[in-house]
Design goal:
30% helix; 69 residues; alpha+beta; globular; 2 helices; 4-stranded antiparallel beta sheet; Alpha-Beta Plaits
């Protein structure tokens, strides 16, 4: 089952941030699509990846998840 989750990541400020997060999250098992919105500082993930795995990938990219929308 495909789910869509949006994570609030206040540390996103530029295209480098976007590329770093997309590069870590995209290969996570179960991720079908990842979209980073620099303006709203959010990461939207579609697929059946676990929440923990997505959060770990964002952390690995060097960013903290502040919450979810």
């Amino acid at each position: 089952m495909t789910t869509v989750r949006t994570y609030e990541v206040p540390g996103i400020s530029c295209d480098h941030c976007k590329a770093a997060i997309e590069g870590e999250v995209a290969p996570v098992t179960g991720v079908e699509r990842v979209t980073v919105d620099v303006a709203s500082r959010t990461v939207t993930v579609s697929g059946d990846a676990s929440d923990d795995a997505v959060r770990a990938a964002i952390d690995e990219a060097g960013y903290d998840v502040a919450g979810m929308r």
